[in-house]
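Example 425, ligand pyridoxal-5'-phosphate.
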Amino acid sequence: MASPLDVQRIRKDFPILGRTVRGDRPLVYLDSAATSQKPTAVLDAERAYYENSNAAVHRGAHQLAEEATDAYESARAAIARFVGGRPEDIVFTKNATEGLNLAAYAFSNATAKASHGHAVDPRFVLTEKDSVVITEMEHHANLIPWQELCAKTGAQLRWIGLTDDGRLDLDQLSLIDDTTKVVSVVHQSNILGTVNPVRRVMDRAHEVGAIGVVDACQSIPHMPVDVEDLGADLVTWSGHKMLGPTGIGLLWGRAEILDAMPPFLTGGSMIETVHMDHSTFAPPPQRFEAGVPMVAQSVGLEAAVRYLEDVGMESVAQHEHDITEYALAGLQELPGVRIIGPTDAVDRGSAISFVVDGIHPHDVGQLLDDRGVAVRVGHHCAWPTCRRYNVPATTRLSSYIYNDRSDIDAALAGIRAAQEFFGVL
Ligand SMILES: Cc1ncc(COP(=O)(O)O)c(C=O)c1O
């Protein structure tokens, strides 16, 4: 099905897409899985906030503080509406990495406190008898915090392996068993593009009484997602991949779970009462938002959410499906090019990794860059996934609402030119 988006009109909203690079080459930006570009509406919203209402939220008694607090809470409400949640269940973080650390630290902090006799929810206490389950396609952000948690508590880290065609090996769901306290899974892989059946994995987690976490960094910007439908207890993602500013991420939590979680960062703004020898903490979401938060970024993110709502997330998903089908077909027509990940557009997003016989992925990226085509090269913070497919690195194209088939054509032409340059055709 053809794309429902008027990409030429959308592109006009993104000033950066009008620039040239490497001399006079028009910029072809195919690196949105790393970070998206920002529309004027987002830039204007942040600037207007600083020009008119800048103040520390939830504190001052003056009008600016009131306006800043209203802006911050309005952003929370807009984001909640966007993902089908309640504002009080949305926590602002720095990015998804911080959201995942916040989740992992809930377990290690609860475990440490329990060992000193503090009352904590036993679901967050880990011992050597327990396990943590992730997958082999996780971004390092959803791997290393759990490795650290296991190192601190003695729990065992397990991972669900992958099939040769880039899918989760669901036969290994049995790794989630009575020892499992937490299961954390990526919704859409940033390296393979695979969209995982997270509901099924979360249901299995709940069957054994584990807490389920979903890394939705690559799904919420690209398709309609209702956090309730994922069946998770905690869902985290970043603002900068969905047209919003850098420096802001989100953690949605089921109310009862957030309520049971100890804080991650402590200090001002997250307390209820403070004494010299102990303190009590505010209810969520404030419990998890220590210090002066990222107000301007939240305002920018609300503008991004409104922009995406105007475009329509169904249309975004359909557009990306079209461009993904087109790119997959084009890459597979090139001799010597191998896609790492699913080769058809079923249950698959627009991040496409590939290797070219006889050319290192970094060289492919560099030759594309010479032509103005910006792609990502390397292990994409998913080093174990590269190892699983016996590649040192890949080159990755990733599209968004401002890309069309002509951008894919530019990348394909660049790959052909690289093959000619290296004499590997
Ligand atoms: C799937 C996935 N998870 C987590 C992250 C980490 O996001 P951030 O760097 O914004 O914290 C990324 C970033 O690329 C990602 O793609």
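Summary: The first strand starts at residue 20 and ends at 21.
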